[in-house]
Amino acid sequence: EEIENEIKSFNASSADELEAFRVKYLGKKGVIKEMSARMKDVAPEDRKDFGQSLNALKDAVQERIDSLKEAIESQSGTESNEDLTRPSGLEQAGSRHPVTLVRNEIETIFQNIGFSIAEGPEIEDDWHNFSALNFPEEHPARDMQDTFFIEKDPDIALRTHTSSVQVRIMETQKPPIRIIAPGRVYRNEDISSRSHCIFHQVEGLYIDKGVSFADMKQTIEYFAKAFFGKTKIRLRPSYFPFTEPSAEVDVYWGLENEIDHRITKGTGWLEIMGCGMVDPNVLKASGIDPDIYSGFAFGMGIERIAMNRFQIGDIRMLFENDIRFLKQFQGAW
Ligand code: PHE
Questions:
Q1: What is the pLDDT of residue 74?
Q2: pLDDT digit string (tens) for 181-206?
């Protein structure tokens, strides 16, 4: 009776307290087990009553546990009305930026033929951005017009191209070198629908024994066909301080109508990159012997190619992060 009163008046405010209560009475070394062990001391004619009392105690404990459990759960809200069998909502995934889409595609195309990816700092010194690349001291590209300088003497600037990464690789690796250097570059230019002060480039570099202009042309043609589909390329003579000879590459952007051979899509030739044979002075500056090795380099702007690929009319759209613009690329690769 005493024990029964104890049980009935027990109160718990947490699941832990309730568990301690359960162990105390129903556990292996609990009160009820202990009392059952005393059965042998009970006179045979009283054993039946004794057993029934024990069972009644057991039931009382269980009853108390059940009712307290309900009270605790409704208090803490662990028993919720949520329907756990309901299907979950779809996760809203973002989309890749068109510049990233194009950059990834260019990277894959070159990785497929053995180029690896190299990276370097966006804040560069004069040596890696200009001097090692054979820019004469008074070259206009060093001018305040084109370059964002951070410090003067010694000059520190935001890199104007990722050719600086090529220099860093040549300084630290031995040929054969086969890398592409994708990344953000900066030029102090007026912002318009066609140009921006920030843009992205992928530059490439291949150095080994006996690398020729023909190798370069083949590599670029392979890229153009892989990226643009059935097309042809054209090289026009050009000038860069770090390559000699240098060329500008156009790809034929336009599909000929098979019936009357008129171009029904695209606008003819599209300039996509600069390229050339690495100038011996550049090899020398980075510690590579130009009498043993030769190589080619190329560089292209990602924005221009992305604008062509997705028919984007204004480069500024690529930097405004307008969600309505970005959403259009959902599901593209
Ligand atoms: N660095 C050049 C630019 O930014 C591109 C280029 C790279 C041209 C390599 C030739 C060879 O315009």
A1: 77
A2: 999 999 998 999 989 999 999 999 99
Q: pTM for the whole thing?
A: 0.71
Ligand 1 binding pocket includes 240 (Cβ within 6 Å): yes
pLDDT of residue 145: 65
Q: What is the C-alpha separation between 118 and 121, in angstroms, rounded? A: 11
Contact assessment for residue 146 and residue 140, using Cβ atoms and an 8 Å cutoff: yes
Q: What spacing in Å lies between the alpha carbon of 4 and ligand 1's midpoint?
A: 92
- Which residues are annotated binding-site positions for Mg(2+)? 244
Whether ipTM > 0.90 holds is: yes
Nearest CA to ligand 1 atom 8: 274
Beta-carbon contacts of residue 287 (< 8 Å; ≥ 6 apart)? 170, 171
Write phi, then psi, for 245 (nearest 5 degrees): -75, 165
Please report the pLDDT score of residue 24 as a whole number.
92
What's the full length of the chain, in residues?
333
pLDDT at 129 (0 to 100): 95
The amino acid at 11: N
243 lines ligand 1 (CB under 6 A): yes
Ligand 1: which of 163, 207, 279 to mutate, most ligand atoms within 8 Å of CB?
Answer: 163
Report the separation in Å between the CA atom of 297 and the middle of ligand 1, taken as the mean of its atom positions. 8
Q: What is the atom index within ligand 1 of the atom nearest the CA of 274?
A: 8
User: Residue ranges of the chain with pLDDT lower than 70?
Assistant: 76-80, 144-145, 254-267, 332-333
| Protein residue whose Cα sits closest to atom 10 of ligand 1 | 275
Put the strands of the sheet holding 177-186 in their side by side order.
116-117, 177-186, 198-208, 294-301, 263-278, 243-256, 233-240
Supply φ then ψ for residue 270, to 5 degrees: -120, 125
Give dist(CA 168, CA 280) in Å, integer.
16
